[in-house]
UniProtKB/TrEMBL annotation:
<feature type="binding site">
    <location>
        <position position="110"/>
    </location>
    <ligand>
        <name>substrate</name>
    </ligand>
</feature>
<feature type="domain" description="NADP-dependent oxidoreductase">
    <location>
        <begin position="24"/>
        <end position="291"/>
    </location>
</feature>
<dbReference type="InterPro" id="IPR020471">
    <property type="entry name" value="AKR"/>
</dbReference>
<keyword id="KW-0521">NADP</keyword>
<keyword id="KW-0560">Oxidoreductase</keyword>
<feature type="active site" description="Proton donor">
    <location>
        <position position="48"/>
    </location>
</feature>
<comment type="similarity">
    <text>Belongs to the aldo/keto reductase family.</text>
</comment>
<dbReference type="InterPro" id="IPR018170">
    <property type="entry name" value="Aldo/ket_reductase_CS"/>
</dbReference>
<dbReference type="GO" id="GO:0016616">
    <property type="term" value="F:oxidoreductase activity, acting on the CH-OH group of donors, NAD or NADP as acceptor"/>
</dbReference>
<dbReference type="InterPro" id="IPR023210">
    <property type="entry name" value="NADP_OxRdtase_dom"/>
</dbReference>
<protein>
    <recommendedName>
        <fullName>NADP-dependent oxidoreductase domain-containing protein</fullName>
    </recommendedName>
</protein>
<dbReference type="Pfam" id="PF00248">
    <property type="entry name" value="Aldo_ket_red"/>
</dbReference>
<dbReference type="InterPro" id="IPR036812">
    <property type="entry name" value="NAD(P)_OxRdtase_dom_sf"/>
</dbReference>
<feature type="site" description="Lowers pKa of active site Tyr">
    <location>
        <position position="77"/>
    </location>
</feature>
């Protein structure tokens, strides 16, 4: 059975399905399963190295008449070694070639920490223990090039990922475009609520990555997975859904887009079937209360936290 996912309107007028499918390390068969299940929003990135495979699956589904291109919401991201002048344009053109598409629906600056601008190494210098930076690159210059990429029709919407509020404000102050989306880590242990509320005031829509807190370099084995917490088990029993579905419903009810990833058919299907029940205000508050400021993706390996634009050194 295929689920129908609601959309929300971004600040530029474009529509975005509120549940998407994460494609990090995802295979073609999983994308095809996701399309059958009703996903139309696919979150990818040049860095994931599988845009050819993702694109092949999307084009196969279009050719088979399962979905039309206009129904899809395809996301890609530009990695920090592709942020110098002219390079985001080269990056997105390569992405489009890999996907086999004429445009993406949303293009994000993946991280606000420009690296040394080399073509063949996504973590230049990491082998010696310290990623090499290019701190001369201004975030608003990357952003102005993103505006040009949008004007050229290579993407419908533009946004950022892993930026803090000050960095987003810097873009707003130095350009004509408020980012349509901020994609950041958000889950019950790290709900990022102050940033969510700040974004809401500015008209920036938040997307939650790692929504189950089950991936990332900082995975703390001493914390139970959120889906194993008694509150989620109790609510899952009450509504007859999985604990993960409760988490995704909580996010969508607080206005946040979610992009879970799974390689298990049943989970791919159940993760999107979350719109037949509504959590109560008290239940939403109880889930908000689980937050313990625990970040799975602190972005502090290979000396990256020494970058002058390291985003996580301020409260939000
Ligand atoms: N912008 C960024 O910097 C950034 C960073 C990280 C991630 N992302 C994006 O966010 C997407 C999702 O993030 P993520 O993969 O880190 O985290 P996630 O979706 O929170 O976790 C994925 C893991 O959860 C498991 N899972 C999925 N559904 C489940 C369910 N219903 N019950 C139990 N376990 C379930 C999956 O296992 P099975 O496969 O075995 O089902 C997989 O191991 C990525 O694919 C990527 O597109 C973006």
């Amino acid at each position: 059975m295929s689920a129908k996912v609601p959309t929300i309107r971004l600040n530029d007028g474009n529509l975005c399905p509120v549940v998407g499918f994460g494609t990090y390390e995802t295979k073609k068969a999983d994308i095809l399963t996701a399309i059958e299940a009703g996903y139309r929003h696919f979150d990818g990135a040049d860095f994931y190295g599988n845009e050819q495979e993702v694109g092949a699956a999307l084009r196969e589904a279009i050719a088979a008449g399962k979905v039309r291109r206009e129904e899809l919401f395809v996301v890609s991201k530009v990695w920090p070694n592709w942020t110098g002048k002219g390079r985001p344009t080269l990056s997105v053109k390569r992405t489009l070639k890999n996907l086999g598409l004429d445009y993406v629906d949303l293009l994000l600056i993946h991280w606000p920490t420009p690296f040394k601008q080399v073509d063949d190494d996504y973590h230049p210098g990491a082998a010696d223990g310290q990623v090499l930076f290019d701190e001369s690159i201004e975030l608003y210059d990357i952003w102005r090039e993103f505006e040009d990429i949008k004007s050229a029709g290579l993407t419908k919407s533009i946004g950022v990922s892993n930026f803090n509020s000050q960095q987003i404000q810097e873009l707003i102050d130095n350009s004509k475009t408020v980012p349509a989306v901020l994609q950041v880590e958000s889950h019950p242990y790290f709900n990022n609520d102050r940033l969510r509320r700040w974004c809401q005031e500015k008209g920036v829509r938040m997307t939650a990555y790692s929504p189950l807190a089950s991936t990332g370099p900082n995975l703390n084995q001493s914390l139970p997975k959120p889906i194993d917490l008694p509150l989620f088990k109790e609510l899952a029993n009450k509504y007859g859904v999985s604990a993960a579905a409760i988490i995704f419903r909580w996010q969508t009810q607080r206005g946040v887009i979610v992009i879970p990833k799974s390689s298990t058919k049943e989970r791919i299907q159940s993760n999107i079937n979350i719109f037949h029940f509504v959590l109560t205000a008290d239940e939403l508050l109880a889930i908000d209360g689980i937050d313990n400021n625990y970040r799975c993706h602190p972005w502090n390996h290979w000396g990256i936290s020494k970058h002058k634009r390291y985003p996580f050194g301020i409260p939000f």
